[in-house]
Amino acid sequence: MTSPLTASTPEVRPEVRWTPRLWGTLLVLCAAMFLDALDVSMVGVALPSIGADLGLSTSTLQWIVSGYILGYGGLLLLGGRTADLLGRRRVFLVALGVFALASLLGGLVDSGPLLIASRFVKGLSAAFTAPAGLSIITTTFPEGPLRNRALSIYTTCAATGFSMGLVLSGLLTEASWRLTMLLPAPIALVALAAGLKLLPHSARERDHRGYDIPGAVLGTAAMLLLVFTVVQAPEAGWAAARTLLSFLAVAVLLTAFVLVERRSPGPLVRLGVLRSGTQVRAQLGAMAFFGSYVGFQFLVTLYMQSLLGWSALHTALAFLPAGALVAVSSTKVGAIVDRFGTPRLIAVGFGLMVAGYALFLGVDLHPVYAVAILPSMLLIGAACALVFPSLNIQATNGVDDHEQGMVSGLLNTSVQVGGAIFLAVVTAVVTAHTPENAGPQAVLDSYRPGLLVVTGIAVAGLLIALTGLRDRPARASVVVARSTTPEAERVPVRD
């Protein structure tokens, strides 16, 4: 029996070189990640136009964003394990096709509920493409410099897509909000056509122990209810009976999920993965990283548009230096990881993030962009360039191929749940400090406690990262997710 923390020599694989076909494979996977980020950032700027055109209330508009988060965050664990069991290529391509159809539907409907439904389906499909795509990379590129470079390029596409989405949404919304919904459809179809030819056929697990249906039901229900409760809590009230009962139900579902997973011969999430400090730090770091950034981006967007009177395009361009810095550094991060290791880069990145957030606390109602805002954007951009690829590398290193989808789903779940929880907390803090009929200065003052919370979340991420510096480096990989199941019980089947 192999311990989850057993040090072992990495599996010897045939030499992998950067052939044109391999670049094409990575490009297809990057396109899906790019679309996920693009879609999230584009819809926010288009919400006022959508509300005016379809006659939707503010609470209904919220669900155009929340519906996507609900489908994405609630089904990631199921998506990751499904990729392992049914085949990563198959799951990725089917989900990408569904994403394209949902994008087309979202741009054509004239009903608020149908638009929200299309957003939920898009989030659901992203919950399958994200872990499947990441696990295709980690099983195609051997652990080490090649995988590090591939993951740095892959994760950079998320930041690039998010930044471009902000700019494109400002331009497209001027013509029609429907263009922001339709744009991902042709890109997804092109990526789907290319993926059919380029993506490698992967071995899928024919699990004689059976599928973990109870675990899948409990895990998915717990994540869906958790995300739903967090999203609704600011509106319903954190101390409201409905909110408290929902959190209690989440706790019950998660407890039942853990009990089922401990006894299941083929669990949805093998809990032994979380015995590794390296893995736990990656998951907690992902929550702190994305949660703090989403909260920061939310407050800064309000500050620029509501208080400074900047247009959507002007606001998007203000964020652009951060995304541009990430895009420019994409080819360098892999080599930096090879030299210094993920724990150091994550710690340095969180330090830069804390500095960027703290620096922004001093803004006023008449800022000079180059002095008051640009330094924070550059620091945060540098932090994103270091932290996000390093977290992905740290979470997937030392994990057996047949569990890469599971770990990828777990990491993406941490990202989405962290974003949902901390954004709701920041929103609640700002709302509590905003007086009625407040003037511009009072509104700005109400933002500062929210910025302090954002900074505190990043500080927590830094402290978590610093604990990883105490680990002694080892030449051999540490296996954090090796199954105890004999190899004879896993029969590879090409999808």
TrEMBL record:
GO MF: transmembrane transporter activity
GO cellular component term of the entry, any:
plasma membrane
- Tell me the Gene Ontology biological-process terms attached to this UniProt entry: response to antibiotic
Q: Which UniProt keywords apply?
A: Antibiotic resistance, Cell membrane, Membrane, Transmembrane, Transmembrane helix, Transport
Query: Entry's Pfam families?
Result: MFS_1
Give its localization. Answer: Cell membrane
Checking CDD domains in the record gives: MFS_MMR_MDR_like (cd17321)
Membrane topology, record value: Multi-pass membrane protein
Please state every residue range assigned to the domain named Major facilitator superfamily (MFS) profile: 25-473
| Keyword hit for Transport | yes
| Chain segments annotated as transmembrane | 22-48, 60-79, 91-109, 121-141, 153-173, 179-199, 211-233, 239-260, 284-304, 310-333, 345-363, 369-388, 409-430, 450-469
Classification via SUPFAM superfamilies: MFS general substrate transporter (SSF103473)
- Asked if the Swiss-Prot or TrEMBL record annotates the protein with the keyword Cytoplasm, the reply is no
Q: Which PANTHER family match?
A: BLR6921 PROTEIN, MAJOR FACILITATOR SUPERFAMILY MULTIDRUG TRANSPORTER MFSC
The protein's name is Transmembrane efflux protein
Could you tell me which species this protein originates from? Streptomyces glaucescens
